[in-house]
Structure to design on (440 residues):
């Protein structure tokens, strides 16, 4: 609004003031005003002209609700109001006139929203919520937000490989060690463990979003996300097992977009079947972390997945993490053979540590948190740094370190059964241009 801003007056600005024309509107406002932590005493009787009079001699609030029901020339009155409101005041108007042209003109004059009477409590809540968000933001004013958003998807190559443990750890490290506001999106709608692992109630946010994709906006995301720490928020679900979730994937994409606008980093725990179902989810992903075990099935699926990325998302950086890798000899497929089959190396290898995993579950902390200082889990910190360098766009230096340098890992197991090798070779033969795997 247009009145000159004075620092002295600014210091005395109220958070909220309302001017309402009738008792019914006042009664509707008060409980919601209280929900937002504003003073119900600031709901005054009187319309826009009272607002102009009052604010011409006192500081304007940060949020102003003004009832225009008694106004005979709404546009003129709003312009008069603009003259007495200082910059930064978010004005929400309400009235009986249902005229798109007036609505547009009012917006042009600087009001944030116009509620047509009678309006519902939810509409009012949404309008206040938007106003509050505008006041908190714009987040891009924060220099940290000048960095490009970092969107990481974590996919488990097989069930139970530890993908969710790694996704939660990555998100926690980004938030708590790298001090970036981070959203963890658990898209395993029925069986996700992100909230469980952090001892949170998942809430209904994610299921509501899928049921009503059109409702997803910044405010929705802000309300639906559950805070794990100041810097880490989680969106997950425990969707009913009695009802299949019907979605064309639009809700997921919309969610990713809104989360991107509100956080510096997003980590998506992405069940691998979602990739098949909703490949568009990969569009804006900076890095995909594929967590794998060293088994025949994982080798087959990794070959197929890498082929999929090559064809469908060639620009996406794919980072391979071996997890729960037992000591050399204890694996179904030796690491060397796994790597030779998939024709690339694992970028990071984390060993099997039942004690630490148990400690994480019992204390509702992430593996990265309880594994702090543990040599094996140091790979997670390196992984997060590599992801952030990638998304910050600092060039090729972002490439994760070569797998050969991994501090721990299952070395080549001696005496692998040739039949397994034969099966690997059979698998490779199905893919064009692959070389034969040597049997140890
Ligand atoms: N490095 C590790 N060492 C030992 N146990 C681990 C390790 N990483 C994860 N785990 C354990 O493995 C189990 C499965 O982990 P998690 O739920 O993260 O796997 P997932 O791949 O997400 O499974 P799902 O396919 O069900 O989604 C958990 O009990 C977890 O504590
Ligand atoms: Mg999981």
């Amino acid at each position: 609004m247009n009145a000159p801003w004075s620092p002295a007056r600014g210091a005395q600005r109220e958070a909220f003031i309302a001017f309402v024309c009738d008792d019914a509107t006042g009664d509707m406002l008060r409980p919601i005003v209280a929900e937002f932590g504003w003073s119900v005493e600031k709901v005054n009787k009187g319309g826009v002209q009272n607002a102009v009079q009052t604010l011409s001699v006192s500081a304007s609030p940060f949020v102003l609700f003004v009832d225009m029901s008694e106004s005979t020339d709404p546009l003129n009155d709003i312009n008069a109001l603009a003259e007495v409101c200082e910059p930064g005041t978010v004005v929400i108007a309400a009235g009986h006139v249902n005229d798109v042209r007036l609505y547009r003109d009012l917006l042009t004059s600087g009001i944030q929203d116009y509620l047509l009477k009678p309006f519902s409590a939810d509409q009012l809540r949404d309008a206040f919520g938007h106003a509050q968000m505008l006041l908190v933001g714009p987040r891009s004013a924060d220099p940290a937000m000048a960095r490009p958003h970092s969107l990481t998807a974590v996919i488990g190559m097989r069930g139970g490989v530890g993908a969710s443990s790694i996704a939660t750890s990555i998100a926690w490290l980004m938030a708590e060690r790298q001090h970036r506001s981070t959203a963890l999106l658990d898209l395993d709608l029925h069986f996700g463990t992100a909230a469980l692992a952090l001892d949170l109630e998942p809430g209904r946010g994610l299921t509501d979003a899928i049921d009503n994709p059109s409702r997803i906006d910044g405010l929705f995301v802000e309300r639906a996300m559950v805070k794990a720490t100041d810097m880490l928020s989680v969106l997950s679900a425990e969707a009913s097992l009695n009802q299949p979730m019907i979605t064309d994937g639009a809700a997921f994409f919309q969610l990713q977009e809104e989360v991107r606008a509100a956080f510096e980093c997003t980590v998506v725990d992405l069940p691998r079947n979602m990739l098949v179902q909703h490949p568009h989810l990969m569009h804006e992903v900076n890095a995909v972390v594929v967590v794998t075990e060293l088994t025949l099935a994982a080798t087959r699926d990794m070959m197929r997945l890498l082929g999929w990325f090559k064809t469908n998302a060639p620009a996406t950086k794919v980072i391979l993490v071996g997890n729960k890798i037992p000591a050399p000899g204890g694996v179904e497929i030796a690491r060397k053979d796994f790597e030779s089959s998939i024709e690339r190396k694992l970028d990071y290898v984390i060993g099997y540590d039942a004690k630490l995993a148990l400690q994480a579950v019992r204390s509702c902390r992430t593996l990265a948190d309880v594994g702090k200082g543990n040599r094996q889990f140091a790979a997670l910190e390196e992984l997060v740094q590599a992801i952030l360098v990638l998304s910050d766009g600092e060039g090729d230096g972002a490439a994760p370190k070569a797998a050969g340098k991994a501090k721990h890992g299952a070395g080549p197991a001696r005496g692998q059964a040739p039949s397994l090798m034969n099966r690997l070779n059979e698998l490779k033969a199905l893919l064009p241009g692959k070389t034969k795997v040597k049997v140890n």
Observations:
- The longest helix spans residues 296-312.
- The first strand starts at residue 16 and ends at 20.
